[in-house]
Specification:
It contains no helices and seven strands. It has about 80 residues and is mainly β.
Length: about 80
């Protein structure tokens, strides 16, 4: 189970079951608010150098802003 806080959603807290495929973890959740239903997709992939690549994307699936969304990504490096 993944628990995370999204800065893109004004620090809203999310929870979703995690799927594992090799060195990649992924999870999807849905958020419903006044704008409509939004699907949030996340992925965390371990790289061979020990870093982890994170990506998150979303898209409104209905409502007045249908199709609007965002994408963010970054690399986590152990210090």
């Amino acid at each position: 189970m993944a628990d995370w806080t999204s800065s893109a959603w004004i620090f809203a807290k999310f929870q979703a079951p995690v799927q594992k495929n090799g060195r990649t973890l992924s999870w999807t959740t849905e958020r419903n608010d006044i704008a409509g239903a939004t699907t949030v997709n996340c992925r965390l992939e371990m790289e061979s150098n020990g870093a982890a690549r994170y990506s998150e994307s979303s898209g409104l699936v209905n409502g007045i802003f249908k199709g609007a969304g965002y994408e963010i990504s970054g690399i986590l490096i152990r210090q």
